[in-house]
Every structure is written in structure tokens, then in C-alpha cells.
Amino acid sequence: MEKVVITIARQYGSGGRTVGEMLSERLNIHYYDKELMKLASEDSGINEALFANADEKVKSTRLFHIAKSVYGGELIPPESDNFTSTDNLFNYQAKIIRQLAEEESCVIIGRCADYVLKDYDNVLSVFVHAPKDFCLEQAAKKHSMSRKELEKFIQKTDKYRSEYYTYHTGRSWFDARNYDLCLDSSKLGFDRCVDEIIAYMKVRFQ
């Protein structure tokens, strides 16, 4: 298979982003994370700041607690009052994700990419997780917080990611059945996680 897309969902502090970056370097393919917002902005004509602001806005509301808006591939037209709604901002990012999967091999972090691309044969979905102490240790390298503050920050971040995923997919973020591979980075280390993903690719996409 010529084009392979690896989607990576990850617990905060598990090093999933690092694994994705290392994997893209090893395979010499593009890595997409927040750049998806820029591409979606260019495609839709919607200001890129709105994409970033939408993420922050929903974190501070109870939107994900009280509703679901499972992605179905649709786009809301520009003449609609809901053109710049949270749902449509996600829809445009999903459109970009689907285009990338059709055009090139790449690594995509988060954004429910595993669900958006669930019907694509060239996609390998990965969930990177780790025990609490490992995540705390990794988070402490980036944030000057007390252990208690870090615990709350990690818990809040993972809660948001879980609710974001459920809102847009109708699925549970932690359900292993949603992914091809679930890797414990604390036991394997980042390099070995990359090795295991590549080994799986060789078997899956002969």
C-alpha cells in the first residue's frame, strides 16, 4: 500500500506526541498536530484564531457533558448562522484529515482522527497511555507545578480529551476496541513504541 496514515490518541504525559514526532522522522513522512487548524482555516476561510479559541471555549463550558454531535462528514454552508460553530470547525478539520489520508502518508495527532478515518483501509490507529506516576514525571519536565497541581492538570486535560472524543464520535476514548494498537509507553519507552508501530505496519500493510 502506497499511502499509510498513523493516527495517535494519547493520555497527557504519556509521550504520545513525542512518539508521533519520532515516528514521522523515522518514516520520513509529515506530522500533523495543530497545523490542522491552519489548513482548515485556509480551506474554509474561517479565521485560524477561531479554531484555537473554540478549543478553549468548550473546555470552559458543559457542552460535552450534555450533548453529542457525532461526525458524519457534513459541512455547514457559509450562509448559515452556524458556519463558525464548534461543530463546523471540527467538520473542516475532519475534511482536512480525510484529504491528507487520500493524498499522502502521514502521522496525525488527536482530533478524533481514528474515527474520522475509520472507513479508510490505509489507516493504523494507536492509543498511547501510561500509569499516573510516569505521566506526572513527563509532565514535570514541561511544567513548573507542584505534584498536586500536575495531577489536577493531567486529570483535567484527559477529561477534556475524553469528552471531546465522545462528543464527536459517540465512542469512549479509553475503549481499546477503537484502536489497532494500545501501547504503554512507560514499559516500552518511546523508541520501542515507534518500533512496535512500524512492526505492526509491516504486518498489516504488506
Please give a handful of descriptors for the protein shown.
globular; 5-stranded parallel beta sheet; 5 strands; alpha/beta; Rossmann fold; 206 residues
Structure description:
By secondary structure, this protein is of the alpha/beta class. Helices cover 54% and strands 12% of the residues. The protein has nine helices and five strands, in the order βαβααααβαβααβα. Helix 1 runs parallel beside helix 9 and helix 7 packs across helix 8.
Summarize the structure.
The chain is of the alpha/beta class and 206 residues long.
Tell me the number of helical segments per DSSP (H or I, 4 or more residues long).
Answer: 9
Instruction: Kindly report the average pLDDT value.
Output: 90
How many distinct folded domains?
Answer: 1
Whole-angstrom Rg: 17 Å
CATH topology: Rossmann fold
Name the CATH homologous superfamily: P-loop containing nucleotide triphosphate hydrolases
What is the total tally of β strands? 5
Strand order of the largest sheet: 2-3-1-4-5
Secondary structure layout plus pairing:
Layout: E1 5-10, H1 16-27, E2 30-32, H2 35-44, H3 48-59, H4 63-66, H5 86-103, E3 106-109, H6 113-116, E4 123-129, H7 132-140, H8 147-169, E5 181-184, H9 185-204
